[in-house]
Amino acid sequence: QVQLVESGGGLVQAGGSLRLSCAASGSIFSISAMRWYRQTPGKERELVAGITSGGRTNYADSVKGRFTISRDNAKNTVYLQMNSLKSEDTGVYYCHLWPFSGTGYWGQGTQVTVSS
Fold first, then answer.
1. Three-class SS of the chain
2. Counting Cβ atoms within 10 Å, is residue 82 exposed (0-12), middle (13-18) or buried (19+)?
3. Is the pLDDT of residue 22 over 90?
4. N or C: which end of the chain has fewer CB within 10 A?
């Protein structure tokens, strides 16, 4: 019913920036909340940032002030702008769509590696 495709990951030096994108298929994007999670080696998957259908945002304390989540409903796409990257930001980043029913939908993930 819904497919999510992440892109934009890669290798970057500490202090650099990346912008992740997640494009969604289907017709429910505009009424759904979108979230970015990351899976860091040795840690549980954690919520990094979220944005509601109305544009309200929330961030994990570890990324607040460095990351920005945004959405473009015309393109069915959510973005995560990541600045001042640290080695601890390394991990696989996943987008998640919450349509306010069921368990939502996950993308395949995109790898982000931050080197020192």
1. CCCEEEECCEEEECCCCEEEEEEECCCCHHHCEEEEEEECCCCCCEEEEEECCCCCEEECCCCCCCEEEEEEHHHCEEEEEECCCCHHHCEEEEEEEECCCCCCEECCCEEEEEEC
2. buried
3. yes
4. C
